Amino acid sequence: MRPDTRARWQIHFCVVLWGFTAILGKLITLDAPTLVAWRMSIVAGALLLAPPMWKRLASLSPRLIAIYAGIGVVVALHWLTFYAAIKLANASVAASCLALCPVFLALLEPWIAKRSHRPAELWLGILVVPGVVLVVGGTPDAMNGGIAIGILSAFFVAIFGALNKRFIHRADALTVTWIEMTAGALCVTAALPLLGSPYPVALPGTSDTLYLLALALGCTLLPFVMALQALKLLSAFETQLAVNLEPVYTILLAMLLFGEQRELGLGFYAGVAIILAVVFLPTLRNRGRPEVSPRAD
């Protein structure tokens, strides 16, 4: 198999793994804050086994470490709201809300990167509105809270993506990931009493432990490393096109495993189709631009 062909299969495999994050979040019985605390702690602990990371960490300035730690808190906020959306609605709804991230990014990145807004990107915010209206109209009223939290989660993804894109080139990806995961885990753990979760952190049962290991190692660390390797051979267009399919994979998996199609109307899927169509527009327009680092899902 040619290296570029292998890379294409590799990045799609990564996206499928990311699609399982919502599925595992639904299967894990822990509340959202405890789930996030365990996920980030397991990833941070696993990265401690990489000896070169310590030398790279020592070479970073305190200011840069503080910046990455702050980004890690934003990642934690994203995961807290993402898993809360799953608990309040379902995996399909949470994943669909995440598809709004590129729209928020089009609005936030110019401000964070200190560049002028691009009119074509601003139009994305208008084009996606009908899709959001259909998504809300195609779900039971009881899921409205989950939709609101899911949209907030997509907002945090946009902030994290813009900040990471601005600062990721100043250190290697694994070291940055360890700082972000460690900072996020510490903040979430400290805030558990305020979030109404058990403190100290509740110990997961056997099934939850297995699901957490799969989530942290199989859906976080493994796809992160594989995506880094694939990015060396794929264009930004191919990579982003694959990543944009994550909500589709999640919805299909939720249908197969949980039968969630019975909870959602045709309007929901029509809205998802519009949102995904809008998400693909910047991908087509940005073809040939430099590759970006993998996202944290």
Overall description:
The chain has helices spanning 3-27, 32-47, 52-58, 62-88, 91-98, 101-112, 119-127, 129-137, 144-167, 173-191, 206-231, 236-243, 246-258, 266-285. The protein starts with a helix and ends in a 12-residue tail after the last helix. The longest helix has 27 residues, at 62-88. It has 297 residues and is an all-alpha fold. It has one domain (3-285). The mean pLDDT is 83.
Largest β sheet strand count, sense and barrel closure: none
Assembly state (oligomeric):
single chain
In total, the number of domains comes to 1
Encode the helix/strand succession as letters: HHHHHHHHHHHHHH
| Low-confidence spans | none
Percent range for helical residues? Answer: over 70%
Radius of gyration: 18 Å
Mean pLDDT, to the nearest integer, reads 83
Beta-strand percentage range: under 5%
Structural class: mainly alpha
The count of β-strands is: 0
Label the overall shape: globular
Distance, first to last CA:
29 Å
- Helix run count: 14
Task: Looking at this protein, list some descriptive labels.
0% strand, mainly alpha
Layout of secondary structure:
Elements: H1 3-27, H2 32-47, H3 52-58, H4 62-88, H5 91-98, H6 101-112, H7 119-127, H8 129-137, H9 144-167, H10 173-191, H11 206-231, H12 236-243, H13 246-258, H14 266-285
Helix pairs in contact: 1-5, 1-11, 1-12, 1-13, 2-4, 2-10, 2-11, 4-5, 4-9, 4-10, 5-9, 5-13, 6-7, 6-9, 8-14
Task: Summarize the model shown.
The protein has 297 residues and is mainly alpha-helical. 75% of the residues lie in helices and 0% in strands. The longest helix has 27 residues, at 62-88.
